[in-house]
Amino acid sequence: MLNEKLKHHNIILASGSPRRQQFFKDLGLDFEIRLKPVHEEYPPRLTHFEISDYLAQLKALPFKKELKPNDILITSDTIVWLKKKALGKPRDAKEAFEIIKSLSNATHEVITSVCFTTPTYEKTVNAVTKVTFKDFSDDEINYYIRTCKPYDKAGAYGIQEWIGHIGVTKIEGSYFNVMGLPTHLVYETLNDMVKII
Known about the structure:
Helices cover 37% and strands 25% of the residues. The protein is an alpha/beta fold.
């Protein structure tokens, strides 16, 4: 359906995430994957969705000079927000434990920003989902880290993994956003873009 509207455009997904790539397949979109390394740093003055917006836009910069008129580049970034602080990806098991312990028996926000870029147009959208976890035991946290090794995930967890199945007591907003892509916003934004680009 959307793919038919986009048949004269070339969708470029700049993400190595298997989950995000699968989402694009599930949306029925034809796309190609292009990757360029980006040093993911943001100004300390930024807060909340400003951080993920900035990083999603930053990831688009290395591609801008090579985009053709019919290209739509899509970049994204996800952060976990707890107590006015962004939680990134853990460097090791100790840091993963500390992050999950801080999320235990508390509500945090998962924020994903998606940046859509063409040679003449750029738009960034974001979604915020509230996730509440039960009170995890140290054994549960250690078991999850040992078996799932969540070092590539913001907030040190994947909601689709074991810890999500046993730990989520409440969720407000898009589940897929917590997995790394607000699919409803991607669909909506691409539909809108077809009318104006």
